[in-house]
Amino acid sequence: MSAQPSPTSQKKPTRWRWREPSLAYVLIAPTVAVLLALSVYPLIYAVKVAFQSGTGESTHWTLEHFTRLLSDGFFLAALGHTLLYAAAALTFEFLLGLGLALLVDRPLRGRGLFRALLLVPMMLPPVVVGVVWRLMLNPDFGAINGTLRSVGFNTDMLTWTASPKLAMLSVIAVDVWQWTPFIFLVLLAGLQAMPQEPYEAARLDGSSAWQTFRYITLPLLKPAMLIALLLRTMDLLRVFDQIFILTEGGPGFATETVSLYIYRAAFRFFDFGYAAAMSFVLLIITNLISAGYIRLLQRQEAA
Amino acid sequence: MTAQTRQAKLSNQNGASSMRQSRRARLVIYITLILAVVAALAPVYWMLTISLKSEVDQFASPPRWLLFSPTLAHYAEAFVSRSFGQYLATSATVAVLSTICSVTLGTFAAYGLARFRMPAKLNRRLSLWILSTRMFPPIVSAVPLFMMMRDLRLLNTMAALVIVYTAFNLPFVVWMMRGFFQELPRELEEAAMVDGDSRLGALFRIILPLVVPGLAATAVFCLIMSWNEFLLALVLTQTDAAMTLPVGIAGRVTQYEIKWGVMSAAGVVAMLPILIFAMAVQRYLVRGLSLGAVKG
């Protein structure tokens, strides 16, 4: 995140006293009030629900929800699925997005059009992405199996989202399809904002294309890469929408992620306390991972 | 980066690379890009064809990508004889109202944070706190928000969604608009004040007109995010009267008997406004998607 430019400090004092902040408080107060009511209060409410048990008179503080989730094999499996999903999708999205960005970062006819068309998947409502891929992956009339059959493949085993073995692969592939454009877009912006001088120097020194990439492009692109990876990681760890539409966590439990499991606990079994406790674990994991990225980013900015 | 320097860089590169880049390399690049575009668009196009195909064509083998006799029957069924028309109206109402609320509140807050100096680095602290409210996974707030709305008897109302989406989009508006305000020199308001404007007068008369493009882009992003949102809508609305389009679609998809044509027609209608909006904010896309972190 860009640091706030230090305000008027170096300038000579002006007639307008920016320092007097009373109007600023009036301008900011409504926003702070809304966020306190709808972001902070719910979080406090969730703490209460997560650490309490019983109803009415018998309500008491307890850690039972947290001890329960440590021995809940389903929760641990959902956590494993989430991490696997995030790691696999992130890897492919990053490599493909970087490749495409490097490819497009040059004078090409129709470059703007390529960029605009490549971005379409990312803008779609996640529910529509779910519908699109249910249609593509349907074993009977889906476009993928239909096309494979028409060139002579036997597709009896390729039941995609209905197959315990292929379901995870399918939902990961859908995420890669939808979000590779995001990495592409951010890295392309990073590439185009680069200074020209190091490249000219490298050319005069007779550096090879690989050397230029390794010692100039990669280091200069690192901040953009970290931001892209940070935002993607946080999104991947909370994944819900597409998987809900594509598999509902199934078949069986094969693609159940933490968000889906929490949803099920809260809104199918109305076990709000347990759902809130699991939410905190997800929140802590997300925060730890993003804190790692942010530390890397800050080190980058300091260097 | 400004348009001029990008332009300059491009022509610069052009001169440098035309010698190095052989014709064959360019051909490979174009083919790769065309394959990537096909991969990105073919699935969406497939849904479009399903929405226009009769059942016979839908289940044809091999799949019919181009040749089929189009029909609008599925659209009529979805939006006239089924409730998708109502879901569409709900989605639009909720998106517009929540966007108005969050853009209004957030713009004022952003101006306060961008322009005034508060004690104890409060500007920066408040900005970061506002950003942090946006960082936690929505499922974390889903459970308490559901319970709050239940206690307030607001479940299954559009009001619940408008309130929740306003809060959800506020941090985004604050960060985007703060960036746009910071790009304007302070001397603008100082000159207006010398001319006798009040502070708020200077904001409305001088500053806001200058940030209109950024304001419009921010509003369009809010519309897109509210329109696309699924999890909170699913949790907070379960009746036809308050259901948004994504929830309506999801409710039908997960049933056993799926009407694929109707589903696809609803999907196409849910997707079209978003694509149009996205094209409109192309210039600000990187900035919007990174919450202002990358000024592309």
Keyword list:
heterodimer; A: 303 residues; mainly alpha; two-stranded antiparallel ribbon; globular; disordered N terminus; B: 296 residues
Question: Any overview of this molecule?
Answer:
The complex is a heterodimer of chains A (303) and B (296). With 303 residues, chain A is mainly α. Chain A is built from 13 helices and 2 strands; from the N terminus they run αββαααααααααααα. The longest helix of chain A has 32 residues, at 73-104. Chain B has 296 residues and is mostly helical. Helices cover 75% and strands 0% of the residues of chain B. Chain B has helices spanning 3-20, 23-52, 55-58, 73-81, 84-115, 122-132, 138-151, 158-182, 187-194, 199-210, 212-228, 231-236, 245-253, 260-280, 285-289. In chain B, helix 2 (23-52) crosses helix 14 (260-280) and helix 9 (187-194) packs across helix 10. The relative contact order of chain B is 0.13. The chains are: A mainly alpha (303), B mainly alpha (296). The interface between A and B is large, with 107 and 120 residues.
Short précis:
The complex is a heterodimer of chains A (303) and B (296). Chain A is mainly α.
Query: How does the overall form of chain A come out from the CA principal axes?
Result: globular
Helix content of chain A: 55-70%
How widely separated are the two ends of chain A? Answer: 15 Å
Global geometry of chain B:
globular
Distance from N terminus to C terminus of chain B (CA atoms, Å) equals 7 Å
* Greatest chain-chain contact: A-B, 107 and 120 residues
Q: How much of the polypeptide of chain A forms β-strand, as a percent range?
A: under 5%
Tell me the layout of helices and strands:
The complex is a heterodimer of chains A (303) and B (296).
Chain A: H1 22-51, E1 52-53, E2 60-61, H2 64-70, H3 73-104, H4 111-118, H5 120-123, H6 126-137, H7 143-150, H8 167-192, H9 197-204, H10 209-237, H11 241-246, H12 258-267, H13 272-302
Antiparallel strand pairs in A: 1-2
Helix pairs in contact in A: 1-13, 2-13, 3-8, 3-10, 8-10, 10-13, 12-13
Chain B: H1 3-20, H2 23-52, H3 55-58, H4 73-81, H5 84-115, H6 122-132, H7 138-151, H8 158-182, H9 187-194, H10 199-210, H11 212-228, H12 231-236, H13 245-253, H14 260-280, H15 285-289
Helix pairs in contact in B: 2-14, 4-14, 5-8, 5-11, 5-13, 6-8, 8-11, 9-10, 11-14, 13-14
